[in-house]
Known about the structure:
Blueprint: E1 2-3, E2 7-11, E3 17-21, E4 36-41, E5 48-53, E6 57-62, E7 67-71, E8 86-91, E9 106-112, E10 117-122
Antiparallel strand pairs: 1-2, 2-3, 3-4, 5-6, 6-7, 7-8, 9-10
Amino acid sequence: MECGYWFTVAIKTDGSLWATGANNYGQLGLGDYSERTVFTQVGSDENWYQACAGYFHMLAIKTDGTMYATGRNNYGQLGLEDKTTRNELTEITSSLIVGSDDEISTWLYVVCGAYHTLAFGSYTQTSTIEPPEDDEPQVWPM
Length: 142
C-alpha cells in the first residue's frame, strides 16, 4: 500500500491494483478525474507486484517487468518523455540509461517523491562507455 497526497493505491494478494481518494489529475488511473471514496480496481490485470504514489502521480510495475504511469506530469515525473498529464495507466516504453545508448529492459523497483520518480531496472549492455579523459566525476550505469 502507498499513500500519495489525498489518495491511496494498493495491490491485493491476487495481484490486482486498487486505488481510492482524490483524482484531480487522473492519479488513480481510472480513465477519469472523479474522486473515489472506496477502493476501486484499476483495470482488470492481476499481475501487479509493486506500486508507488507521489503527490499527484502513481507508477506501478507488473510481474513481467513492465512499468506504467498515470497522473500529473508537469515535471516529467511519469517518465513518458513529455509533460502531458494522464488519467489512465500508460506503459513506459523507453528509458535510456545516462551516458549510454542502452535501454532498461526490465523494471525492478520504483519509488515516487512529491514531483519526481526514481526507478531501478536491468538491461543488456550493447554500447561501450568510454572513461572520462579528465578527473571529472562520471555517472556509470550499474
